[in-house]
Specification:
Oligomer: single chain
Shape: globular
Number of strands: 13
Helix content: 40-55%
Strand content: 15-25%
Radius of gyration: 20 Å
Number of helices: 13
Strand order of the largest sheet: 1-2-3-12-9-4-7-5-6
Low-confidence stretches: 1-6
Length: 333
């Protein structure tokens, strides 16, 4: 069961693995595995449509075309959306060996208290953005627009799924400008494919040294940035290490180069013996500079990295335990 406790400094949402039943864990695994499979098949939907048309599978073709139409039609959340939201929020977190979501300073986006417009920068990307997903369907983040790769946002099945759960968006630059111009709160994993490529079960890594674009946007619109770190994300999936120069070069052309697997019997299912500890950092308040210079961006980019490191160092013992936490270090690429 999920419980909630608050203090003067933080608000914590957490699950207790000792009270999780086998059925609840199974349903949690069903929630996360179906989401990942939907993610992958949605990206391949144009290929499936081509094959079905070529081979005369008219019902399959019609179903895929209908999903494209539904994905782009305007519609509001209804009973089915509410049921899906409830299922994911109730069971997904119960699959793991405990999940905690910590809001530093008690600044919860869904609270009635008025907050400044905020950009949530989520790290690490991991193989399948599990920390991002846990935040996405959590009621505390309701109404925050979660952005991801434009090709994935355009794909029909995953677009329908994410629209039903919360508020999705495209990470394309014009779209990000539009969301922030309208005053929306936005969440994005700025490390992208490169950060996914660097995923390791042994070393915590973020890819952020050359990621200036989100800082420039936040300066342009005067938006706070809240660094988010999901401890344990890298432990969920194995990933082949090495050949970084070649793999990162391919990432720049939009080619994923992560070679990953989770459970032995179903590679797309993450390992379940992992504790996830997600920290939503305090707001980093940026000035509004309509046309920020390179120097402006560099100054606030450095402050952002320092804040991300602070979050990691202050919370790593809570996340990993005293012994492992004492030795844990964050590699910044």
């Amino acid at each position: 069961m999920a419980t909630k406790r608050t203090s003067m400094d933080v608000t914590v949402l957490e699950t207790n693995p000792s009270t999780t039943t086998t059925l609840e864990s199974f349903l949690g695994g069903l929630a996360v595995s179906s989401s990942i499979v939907l993610w992958i098949t949605s990206c391949a939907s144009p290929f499936f449509l081509y094959l079905s048309l070529k081979n005369g599978y008219h019902y399959v073709s019609a179903s895929i075309i209908l999903s494209f139409i539904v994905a782009y039609l305007p519609w509001e959340h209804g009973p089915l959306s509410l049921a899906l939201q409830t299922f994911l929020n109730r069971y997904h977190a119960l699959y793991y060996h405990g999940v905690s979501i910590v809001f530093e300073g008690g600044h919860v986006p869904s609270a009635t208290t008025k907050h400044r417009q905020t950009f949530f920068a989520i790290h690490p990307h991991g193989a399948f953005c599990i920390g991002w997903a846990l935040l996405y369907h959590n009621p505390a983040m309701r109404g925050v627009r979660f952005c991801f790769a434009p090709i994935l946002f355009a794909s029909p099945f995953f677009r329908i799924f994410t629209r039903a759960v919360n508020c999705p968006g495209s990470a394309a630059r014009p779209s990000m400008n539009a969301y922030l111009r309208k005053g929306e709160n936005v969440a994005l994993p700025p490390g992208g494919f490169e950060e996914a490529t660097l995923t390791s079960t042994k070393i915590d890594r973020v890819f952020i040294k050359c990621r200036y674009g989100f800082v420039r946007l936040c300066l342009k619109y005067g938006v706070d940035i809240r660094p988010v770190y999901a401890f344990g994300e890298g432990k969920l999936f194995n990933n082949i290490q090495g050949c970084w120069n070649l793999r990162l070069a391919l990432n720049r052309f939009g080619v994923p180069t992560i070679f990953t697997w989770g459970r032995w019997f179903f590679p797309f299912l993450p390992k379940n013996g992992v504790k996830l500890y997600i920290v939503v950092g305090r707001p980093l308040t940026l000035p509004k500079i309509e046309n920020p210079t390179k120097e402006d961006v560099a100054i606030w980019h450095t402050k952002y990295i320092n804040e991300l490191k602070r979050i990691y160092d202050e919370h790593k013992r809570d996340a990993y335990g005293q012994e492992e936490g004492k030795l844990a270090k964050l590699e910044v690429w």
